[in-house]
Every structure is written in C-alpha cells, then in structure tokens.
Amino acid sequence: MPLVDLSKPGEKKKFIWAAALGLVAIIVLWWTFIGFGGSSSTAARPTASPSPQRAAQQNTQRPSSPVSPEVEKAKAFTELMYEPASYNPPEAKRNIFAYYEPPPPPVSTPTQPPPSPTPTPPVLLASVSPSNVYARTSDFKLEVSGDKFTPEMRIFVEGRELPTSYKNPQEVSATIPASFIVAPGPRSVIVRTPDNRLYSNSASINVAAPPTPNYAYIGIISPENRVADTALIQDKSNKNIMSVYKGDVLSGRFRVTSISDKELVLTDTTLKIKHTLAMSEGDKAAGGPLSRPTPRVDAEDDEP
Q1: Cα separation, 57 vs 61, whole angstroms
Q2: Exposure of 253 by Cβ count < 10 A (0-12 exposed, 13-18 middle, 19+ buried)?
Q3: Helix (H) or strand (E) holding 28
C-alpha cells in the first residue's frame, strides 16, 4: 500500500508544502550551526578599553576544572603564609587642650671671680702652751713658739692685743687674764705687729667647761649655840642624802667653804673654782627617817 497517493489533488499539495517546509528548516539549521562562510562587513571593531589590563585578564581567564574533595581536604591543612601589609597610621590630630609654653628665661647668675690665694705669712707660729685650759680659772701664762719673731711683735687673742714678752726669735709669751676664758670655746691666737706689717699664721686655745659637783643642797641643820651648821646634800647619782660640815671635801675634790640658809659654796681644790649650790627640795622620793642625819645633842635624860 503506498504511503502517499499523488493522484489525488489534495495529497499532492500537502506533499509540496511538506517538502518546502523541510527545505526551509534545513537551511535555517545550516545557517545557525555552520553558516554560509561569508564575512560580514559590519563586523564589530574592538573598542579601546579604559582598563586594558583588566580586559586582558578577563579574556585570559578560563573556567577552572572541578576540584576533587580530597584536594579540598588537603587545602584545609595547608600552612598559611601571613604577610602583613605595610600600614601607615594617619597623622594625629592636634590636641586643643595642649598648648606651647615657652621655657623660662635663663637666670643670669653673677659670676664671682675666684678668690686670690692667701699669701704665706712671713712669720711662723708653730705652737701655743697651754693649748687646753678650763673656763673660769685664774690668769695664766701663754708661751708661743715659732720663728722670725721680732721685739715689736705682739700676741693677739681674739683680736685683742696683750702685753708681750720677747725672749728670742723663736719664743714670745703673754699673760692671759681670767676674763678671756669665762665661757667655754676656742680662742684664736696670732702674733703680729700693731701695723700688721709682719704677721703669723693663727693657732687656737681650747677652753673647756670645768667639772661641776654632782650634788644638790636640800637643807641645813643649825644648833642653838650656832657653833657649827650641818648641810644636808643629796648625791644625784644614787639619791643618797649626807650631812656635811664646813671644811669637808666631797668626791676628793670639792671642799665645803660656806653654809647658809640659801646656798652652799664648794671650792674646787684643783682649779680653785667656786661652785654655788642653791637650796632646793631635792628628790623627795629618796627621803626617809634613816637617811636624814640628825644633829648630835647631849643626852638630856642622863641622870647623875
């Protein structure tokens, strides 16, 4: 049985249209996939790209091949190389609370010229004797030894001239009055002429405080006949109370020279210095019936 009967007029037209449509379809498919081999005159010309390097990079990129899961796991344990980028911090802004304070002007200190060296004295003072004395003692003789002394030179103590005895160019002497050594302290000594034409170096006399009695005068016992008064004194070191009479020597050095209701006078037997002890109450805690001596009296109850 034939597929198409061309003897019929309707079948013949259908066959012609089907063949035409098939041919058109074949031409369209050929032009789409293969083309006709001709170059179009209106081909697009390459235009200048504002960033040719970026365009080149885009053109050279190729689709990456798929990465296997094993490679992805290996990348998770790959050591990372960190390269810090150079960072320049911005410039700090000005602090409105900070302001410039000019330094104080330099203070000009007056420069003093160095002192000129002291010239060497033309006269030598080597030593003085005695060099140590006690204050409040009597007059004493001072011997000065040295060199180049002349008869017109004098001994000066604390700037006061003293009558001087010239013995030889190596020795002169003078009497120091007691008024010069009333208080403790050093005393300067120099030998020079009154016009200061010739002078020596200076020396010193050390005036020390004299020893004092360590007693307190606390009372007096006077008998009716006033033959001999008894003084009650207290030793400050051990608080003992003793009775003494005029002429007694205390501590082997201080002699009782006067007893009165107001004061007790003791004289240093070595330095000949008088010490006055005023009447005082002493240490009341040390008193007692056995420590205070009583005056010796005749036995009034004795029967003949």
Answers
A1: 6
A2: middle
A3: helix 9-33
> Which pLDDT tens digit goes with each residue over 191-227?
999 999 999 999 999 999 999 999 999 999 888 776 7
Cite the beta strand spans of the chain per DSSP E: 124-129, 132-134, 140-147, 154-157, 160-162, 164-168, 171-176, 185-192, 203-208, 215-221, 230-235, 241-244, 249-250, 254-259, 263-268, 274-278
Give the position of tokens 């030889």: 168
User: Pairing between strand 203-208 and 274-278?
Assistant: unpaired
Q: pTM of the prediction?
A: 0.53
H or E segment to which residue 284 belongs: none
pLDDT in tens, 86-128: 666 666 666 667 777 888 888 888 888 887 777 889 999 999 9
